[in-house]
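User: Is it possible to get a 3D structure for a protein together with its bound compound? The compound here is adenosine-5'-diphosphate. I've pasted both below.
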Amino acid sequence: MVVAVYPGTFDPLTCGHMDIVERAASLVDELTVGIYENSAKQPLFPLEQRVRLVQEAITGLPNVQAKAFKGLTVDFIRQIGGRLMIRGLRANSDFEREFEMALMNRKLAPDIELLCLMTSSQYQFLSSTLIKEVAKLGGCLEGMVPDHVALALKEKFSMPGELAIGKGKM
Ligand code: ADP
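Assistant: Yes, that's possible. Here is the predicted structure of the complex:
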């Protein structure tokens, strides 16, 4: 049985993340989306809300669950009985950092294997950081984040007028 963890900040969850979740879920028996409690980034959304937004997005995926964790990702993977870490890779932007982290994790936990999935081309330039910028300025988030995430962003930035979904330009 292959048990895997897809760790991240998910601040907030994007369609790029969900693409990785769905593809990874089809490759493994059980997938846990692990949401960092102690992210080095300063998240816009509190931990509980980041977890809820992921939970809502994975309701149709029976072998996927979402859990917050603190401490080392490799320790969390061991705690849930997994041996595989999933990460997503966008062209140049992610490789060096992922490689550095992978080597450190290999040192800390040689028993945990890493599987990087290449982003799908339509999500190549999608990042949570960019999403927050666009949301802050009231831009259209259609096709970039699940609808419930777009709503949460709208509430966060108290955008005037209608929903950000399907409206406006970048
Ligand atoms: P972290 O703080 O660990 O980078 P993120 O939530 O930003 O957490 O990202 C979690 C994982 O998802 C990382 O492996 C990241 O490279 C990957 N990822 C982020 N955006 C995309 C995307 N658009 N397509 C594919 N993978 C992505």
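Residues 138 and 159 are 6 Å apart (CA to CA). Helices lie at 15-25, 47-57, 73-79, 91-108, 128-136, 147-157.
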